Amino acid sequence: MLTDQATAVTTSAPSTGRVDLRSGQRRAGNLLVAPAYTGIVITALVPLLAAFALSFTSYGLLEPPQWVGLRNYRTVLGDPVYWESLRNTVSFAFGQVLIGIVVTIFVALLFNRALFGGAVMRTIVYIPQAASYVVVALMWNLLLDPAVGPINAALGALGVDHPVYFLTDSSLAMPSIIVMSLWRNLGYFMIIVLAALQSVPEELTEAAMMDGAGPVRRFFAVTLPSISKVVSFVAITWFLGALQMFTQSYVMTGGGPVNATRTLVYLMYDEAFLRLDIGTACAIAVMLFVLVVVLSVLLRVLLRTRKD
Predict the structure, then answer these.
(1) Distance in angstroms (rounded) separating the CA atoms of residues 20 and 17
(2) What pTM, to 2 d.p., does this model score?
(3) What is the pLDDT averaged over residues 19-46?
């Protein structure tokens, strides 16, 4: 009897010790991440809740907020400029990501095969990511200038007898911004995809080669499934960032021509800082938040279904 009790005490003591140790580790971990949690709450959650509350008010910064209910949402939804900005935002996001994923994978495959460059070329491709959007946008303004831009000079040398107005033509302004944004972001996402390509097991590729699979078949049967999670991460991350596009349009076109490059963030900026209508700007911000959540969930489900 005494032996059984001693055994029970012996076996239960380490368990209690482990529980206490885990509890202490959990408390220590919570203390370590508390500053990060506090920063997230202060910089993200509190402004989000404040924007949601102010979206139901009439607030012009110069007078106290006044409750107006859903009036701001009705005003925004009845404004044709909002729907045009929504279309521009979604078309920019899908256009950049769909083209960008293909180009990024292609460039990463070239670097993975060591067809050209190496570390120096990878650095050159990545350099635009180190520059701010303002610097890149100003540089592309010069490149696309119809009078002195080198791109128009090259087109003239190829036989184009009139300058192309990339940023003042409503049919070319958004594609030009998409190309500029793709050039700026390509290096960052290419490095991520390249790291995934270099982690693909060589045994799988060699087995496919032994089965007679060509380069295209090996890519779709072996390489792409192996990096599908990374490609999904790149697509979702890139897409969420593209939905918040503002700087490129602000610097390069000012939202024009004829609202052809005005996005939801640009419209929100106009309402808040030009018209001083904080309530309407917050309503646009809330609807943009809902759009980002819905589209990101749909994109994630689509990519997961495609992967399966």
Answers:
(1) 5
(2) 0.82
(3) 80
